[in-house]
Hints:
Chain B: Keywords: ATP synthesis, Cell membrane, CF(0), Hydrogen ion transport, Ion transport, Membrane, Transmembrane, Transmembrane helix, Transport. Chain B: InterPro entries: ATP_synth_b/b'su_bac/chlpt, ATP_synthase_B_chain. Chain B: Pfam families: ATP-synt_B. Chain B: It is a single-pass membrane protein. Chain B: It is found in: Cell membrane; Endomembrane system. The structure holds two protein chains of two kinds. By secondary structure, chain A is mostly helical. Chain A is globular, with a radius of gyration of 22 Å. Chain A has one domain (59-258). Chain A has helices at residues 33-51, 61-81, 89-107, 125-147, 168-177, 179-209, 215-259, and strands at residues 18-20, 23-24, 27-28, 31-32. In chain A, β2 (23-24) and β3 form a beta hairpin. Chain B has one domain (2-162). In chain B, α2 crosses α3 (150-163). The longest helix of chain B has 138 residues, at 7-144. Classes of the chains: A mainly alpha, B mainly alpha. The A-B interface holds A 11-12, 14-16, 18, 22, 24, 27-32, 34-35, 38-39, 41-42, 45-46, 49-50, 52-53, 55, 57, 66-67, 70-71, 74, 89-91, 93-94, 97-98, 121, 123-127, 130-131, 134, 188, 192 and B 1-4, 6-7, 9-19, 21-22, 24-26, 28-31, 33-38, 40-41, 44, 47.
Amino acid sequence: MAGESGKIDPMHQFQIEPLAPLNIGGYDVSFTNSSLFMMIVLGALWLFMWGGMKRDLVPGRWQMAVEGVTGFVNNMVTSSVGPEGKKYVPLVFSLFMFILMANFMGMMPFGIVPGVHPFTVTSHLTVTAVLAVLSFGTVLVVGFWRHGLHFFSLFVPHGTPWWLLWLIPLIELFSFLIRPFSLALRLFVAMTAGHVLMKVLAGFVINGLNAQAAWVPLVVSVPSFILMIGITLLELLVCAIQAYVFALLTSLYINDAVNLH
Amino acid sequence: MPQIAQILETYASQFFWLLIVFGLIYFTIGKGMLPKIEANMDARDRKIADDLAAAERARAEADNLGDSGEADLAAARLVAQAKANDAKAKAAKDAEQRLAKADAEVGAKLAAAEADLAKASAAAMASIETVAAEAAADIVAKVSGAKVSAAQAASAVKAVMANG
């Protein structure tokens, strides 16, 4: 975390470091700290779901939690897409839970163990881009599969005046094509900005405590620390909200593909 | 910003591992575990709905039974009342009949007694006449010494008694 000059680099947390070099077909697919945290997310998610697999008639606490989340995603998809949305629940659920778990794993205080740094998988544009492409690709495949070329009528909303027919489809097409970018960038920026802010505030706390002047810890470190508690709570909220936004937008886009407005 | 500075070195690794991990999540958790959990939730919802429907049916049945029970009770009460009324009327009639019979018996006895009384008084009257006639004849004989026949005395007594 601390650089050579003793300064705290808030961007260092996003550094990808290879843990086990691996090369397949000329591509460098090394197992990195990012891959490790993806695996941790997978393990945590599997453990969480496994705890809810008892399938009791009267659920216990853990089963209740798992059923609460599945019911939440199910409800979100079916209320956006309608009863046909059932088919897309596994995809939206996987996206939602992966993003949620990855966000939370990046917030875990693993840093108290020396030499261990938490890594936020979703703060990487490469990762959010793949997730956005999965979401957008599903919309394209479903749209063309179900409606064929008629899918393009999505770009001509009902009630468009004839004299605007040259403009509205262009705007609609643009807003449609920008969806994967907005999906990917929103998540990437939210996670990156939040973690940078937290790291900067933590730097204030530590540098203030290390300062020569006696007044600095009281004036800089204590307020920064109090602010950081609030920002951390806010960041936990953002973790959940970003996962929710991604899943909700995906189900709304799937609704476009299934029902064509 | 390492996310952009490192993008060319790391994109292959990121894509590779993300696709593996997300594929595992989608196929084992999304397609494997999720439907089982949802099936369990659906089964529970269905069971709750069924149980509620059964309870509702049972309640309606109980209501029906209660209604018919009340109706039965009312009918039984009516029948009992009618029977009681009948019995009362019958008893009243019986008593009246008995009373009338007793009345008639008493009347007959009374009439017989009256007749007996009349006969007895007539007999007594007749015997008084003969006694009076004899006494009159005796008195006449003692006072005047004249012999009066029984017939004369009787007619004289008759005449006096008829006047007096």
